[in-house]
Amino acid sequence: MASDLSPAPSVAKPIDVAVGILVKPNGEVLMAQRPEGKPYAGYWEFPGGKVEAGEPILSALIREFKEEIGVEIDPNFAEAWCGCAYVYPHAHVHLHFYLCRAWQGEPQSLEGQQLAWQGETLNVQPLLPATIPLLEWMWQAR
Ligand SMILES: Nc1nc2c([nH]c(=O)n2[C@H]2C[C@H](O)[C@@H](COP(=O)(O)OP(=O)(O)OP(=O)(O)O)O2)c(=O)[nH]1
Ligand SMILES: [Mg+2]
């Protein structure tokens, strides 16, 4: 019988991910399409990305928003909302979602990604699997 019980690399160490939901006064939220070359390219998500070693999650959120869409998030208006874990074939992620109602700058596509403001009836597909239940829950919780 095999004696190596060490977990597969994908489940050994969850990766923290800071995710931001920009919410406009009319309730629309900003979604982005993952660019070519990344896992799940073409899938829609909320902007954000991996937290670096030792980096506070809110700092990672602010950094990722500058890098990906050129938007300056005001930390005083970024509300830690909820988290979830998901095991993908490429990684085990721990997602930290923030609701952001104030920011500076107009979202720009700095990584060649498509951006779209979305209301409750989505017109973008497909979504990252881990994001689908969060989005449904968000509309219910409003
Ligand atoms: N940004 C974001 N990531 C999500 C969402 N849902 C979800 O499962 N993820 C997963 C997909 C990825 O495995 C991980 C995010 O990592 P990423 O590939 O975007 O990382 P990153 O922006 O730092 O980019 P890079 O290091 O690959 O250049 O989290 C979501 O709504 N937004
Ligand atoms: Mg990203």
TrEMBL record:
It catalyses: 8-oxo-dGTP + H2O = 8-oxo-dGMP + diphosphate + H(+); 8-oxo-GTP + H2O = 8-oxo-GMP + diphosphate + H(+). It comes from Sapientia aquatica. SUPFAM superfamilies: Nudix. Transmembrane segments: none annotated. Its cofactor is Mg(2+). Pfam families: NUDIX. Residues 12-140 form the Nudix hydrolase domain. Mg(2+) binds at G48, E68. InterPro entries: Mutator_MutT, MutT-like, Nudix_hydrolase, NUDIX_hydrolase-like_dom_sf, NUDIX_hydrolase_CS, NUDIX_hydrolase_dom. Belongs to the Nudix hydrolase family. GO terms for molecular function: 8-oxo-7,8-dihydrodeoxyguanosine triphosphate pyrophosphatase activity; 8-oxo-7,8-dihydroguanosine triphosphate pyrophosphatase activity; 8-oxo-dGDP phosphatase activity; 8-oxo-GDP phosphatase activity; metal ion binding. 8-oxo-dGTP binds at R34, E45, F46, P47, G48. Keywords: DNA damage, DNA repair, DNA replication, Hydrolase, Magnesium, Metal-binding, Mutator protein. The keyword Chaperone does not apply. GO terms for biological process: DNA repair; DNA replication. This is 8-oxo-dGTP diphosphatase. It is an enzyme of class 3 (hydrolase). Its EC number is 3.6.1.55.
